[in-house]
Specification:
By secondary structure, this protein is α+β, with helices and mostly antiparallel strands. Helix content is about 50%, strand content about 15%. Strand 5 and strand 6 form a beta hairpin. The longest helix has about 35 residues. InterPro entries: ABC3_permease_C, MacB_PCD, Macrolide_Exporter_MacB.
Amino acid sequence: MLSNYIKIAWKVLLRHPFYTFITLFGISLTLTVLMVLTSFLDHLFGSHYPEDKRYRTLYIANILQTDSVRNSMSSGPASYYFLNKYAKSLKTPENVAIVSNFSFSNTYVNGKRIKLNTKYTDVDFWNVAGFEFLEGKPYNEQNIKSGDHVAVITDDLRDQYFERGAQVVGKFIDIENINYRVIGVVKGSPPTRFYTYGDVYFPYTAPKSNYENKGMRGSYIAMVLAKSREDMPAIQAEFDNVISRLSKDEIQDGQQYSVLIVKAHRYFDHFLDQFARDDSRKIFFYTIIGLVLLMIMGLPAINLVNVNVSRILERSSEIGVRKAFGAPSKALLWQFIIENIFITFIGGLFALVLSMIIISLINSSGWIAYADLTINFTVFLVSIFICLLFGLLSGVLPAVRMSKLKIVEALKA
């Protein structure tokens, strides 16, 4: 029966090329937008180089200090001291890395200024983040203890400062009038990976890192790597327990705050927490996202409903004949729904090809440095689901309307 429905759908497509073009164009355009959007969201929140362990990593990235009634509050990244004392002491994680947020420096080549995004990290950063070393190696504990002026740079900075593809380990780079010995060269990270992106990486004991600040607030975040996904709730509970034992003096941190809120979040939860800290705001955020997606999918679906109604109306006589020979409304309903899903998947195939072309153009355009958008397994599954949903949205209403058409009315048409 299913094969017969598909054969009928194929014949219908060939019967009216104009309706076929309009239908497939609308489906392909809509699904292309959704596939590219899905790929970009996966690029932002998925586990990709160099944060390929993000699926089992928690982030301690923000400290909120407030009074008991929340009339005043202060929030921002933590200090190295705070994270070293309370995050590094956790027993459940496999590893804990501490890395600074963005800071900026300058270097000069032949009088030309190169703006640098710099990061200060501990040794464990290189174990939690999966950077590919093109040359050399990361700094070690001895470099940190000795306060060595060493640095790991990206291949892009190497090409700008030295020479494209040159061997530079052991050479020196002048940054803010300090000579750093290049100890390693890594493949760079996209700027959308906020906590790993940089042009140059220093040990946290390097100048201007402010790691010796004893206060609670600073410019560092912790990346807490779990042994498996299943360990993440236990790590969060352990960290919450550690924070709950802080004394009043530690919470106040020399200021008039009595409440400290700091969490070990999954990446997306941390991202969302920047915009919506309480449940009501999160519901509002999800509502807005839902409305946007509904508009992206709903408006084209409504247009395709009209096209499908016109396309099916032409087959009124066929419907009348089938009803006259005893075809139940349920069978007609499923026929039209399956036909529409089949047509949607054809449009989805065109959309998949078009999406791959667009993604390839984005990756090679340089709009996003080191962009690595892909149609991976996750994106493909989401795309399949979108095709099914879109096929149902644009096909159910016309199918219901036609399946309920009376025999006499159908034959007259």
